[in-house]
Specification:
five-stranded mixed beta sheet; 5 strands
């Protein structure tokens, strides 16, 4: 996987994006604290911003942190699968 410049998608420079060989994008969250609903809403906003630039990108969340069950359901409802890092 290679790193992608978030400015390409009009995102904050602090956002970490990775792209695999198939062209799918991954939002990377590498931390110890739990991913809660507030973070989930931010991730959905990031996905919407990416879709504005490129409709065909598949977006997933790649994280080492535990994810709240409500947040996981919300992200799946918004077509953003959660994958372990």
């Amino acid at each position: 996987m290679k790193s992608v410049d978030p400015k390409t998608y009009h995102l904050s420079p602090r956002t970490k994006l990775l792209e695999n060989s198939r062209g799918s994008l991954f939002v990377l969250i590498d931390r110890k604290s739990r991913v809660v609903m507030k973070d989930g809403h931010k991730i959905v906003k990031i996905a919407e911003d990416i879709k504005k630039v490129n409709q065909n990108k598949k977006i997933s969340l790649l994280t080492s942190a535990p994810v709240c069950s409500k947040t996981k359901k919300h992200l799946l409802k918004c077509s953003i699968p959660v994958l372990p890092l």
